[in-house]
Specification:
The protein is of the alpha+beta class. It has eleven helices and 14 strands. Helix 6 crosses helix 9. About 40% of the residues are buried.
Length: about 325
């Protein structure tokens, strides 16, 4: 039975039953998207044993079409019969929203979902990515030993420098982070994953679990910063930025020191997985090497799948998704 959930406490507690529920499935994320015209729909699928699957979908209508976007979901119990639970959840969503363009964007390992489960329900793949997960169930010595030698050496340089790392409960220093991120994105040719207006609305609702780590040089200049979020057992590195190596205040190891501090924070807060949030070896090789050298497990994501319904083509659905920019 598919049931709607309106209580933030009930929804977030329910998400805690799924080990891979990420911040985009949190109640706060859905509310942060309302000003952009996205209406959250939060539903859970129950059977005799309890909740077996859940989905926070963001709904928006444009050009006579209804787009239903499920960021990093649905989530489902992946024990024996997991494919069946996911399949039943998708069937329930399709029955509830039969004319919609339904988009699911899974960050889980591609082998965790059978193509057949999706294709037999009319879904088609439109994109996938790569990320890396650090296992925070290890002790800190083991995590540090897993870093690439060069990454570890840079971390040591940062620790020996005059850099000061401070932790700020967001939105404190969020403006500074995004100012630095804007110049970094222009310099390196990438798009900041979480737009600043969304972050400004989202992170205050994540009190204590959305933090900015800032690295300040001896002269007081902000040389590196990053936004981290924890939701139940998962922590994620959402936005990061740093000054270029040609900057007068640049200090090698500042970004490494931020990451080392952040993953310790995440572990102490109860996270068991630290998601490095995207590897792009072709489009952003510098960031790729930085993250890859942290020694995490590479995850080839299942990615974005679209069920268009009616006569809407997959290509048209992709164009609509890009224009409406749900993330």
């Amino acid at each position: 039975m598919l049931s709607s959930i309106e209580s933030p406490e009930e929804w977030d507690a329910l998400c805690g039953a799924f080990t891979d529920a990420e911040f985009t499935q949190s109640f706060a994320w859905g509310e942060a998207r309302r000003p952009d015209g996205w209406v959250p729909l939060r539903v859970a699928l129950r059977d005799g044993t309890g909740v077996v699957a859940a989905a926070q979908c963001l709904v928006k209508s444009r050009y006579g079409l209804q787009l239903v976007y499920c960021p990093r979901g649905p989530v489902w119990q992946k024990a024996a019969g997991g494919d069946d639970a996911l399949g039943r959840m998708l069937d329930a969503l399709i029955a509830r929203l039969p004319r919609a363009v339904l988009v699911c964007d899974w960050y889980v390992d591609r082998d965790h979902i059978s193509d057949l489960v999706l294709r037999r329900r009319g879904f088609r793949p439109v994109g996938a990515g790569i990320t890396a997960h650090l296992d925070l169930r290890q002790d800190l010595a083991a995590i540090r030993a897993g870093f690439h030698k060069k990454w570890r050496n840079d971390l040591h340089k940062g620790e020996e420098s005059a850099i000061t790392i401070t932790r700020h409960d967001a939105p404190d220093r969020l403006d500074d982070l995004y100012q630095l991120a804007g110049t970094t994105a222009i310099r390196k040719g990438f798009v900041v994953g979480v737009p600043e207006p969304v972050a400004q609305r989202f992170v205050p609702m994540f009190s204590g679990d959305a933090v900015v780590f800032a690295a300040t040089a001896a002269d007081g200049v902000l040389v590196s910063a990053a936004l981290m979020v924890r939701f139940h057992q998962r922590a994620g590195y959402l936005v990061g930025a740093s000054v270029p190596s040609t900057h007068a205040s640049f200090q090698r190891g500042a970004s490494n020191l931020i990451q080392w501090t952040a993953l310790q924070w995440a572990q102490a807060a109860g996270a068991v997985t630290y998601n490095l949030e995207g590897l792009d070896p072709a489009g952003n090789p510098g960031v790729f090497h930085f993250k890859d050298r942290m020694g995490g497990r590479t995850i080839h994501q299942k990615g974005t799948w679209v069920r268009t319904g009616l006569s809407v083509t997959t290509m048209a659905a992709q164009a609509l998704l890009r224009r409406m920019r749900p993330v």
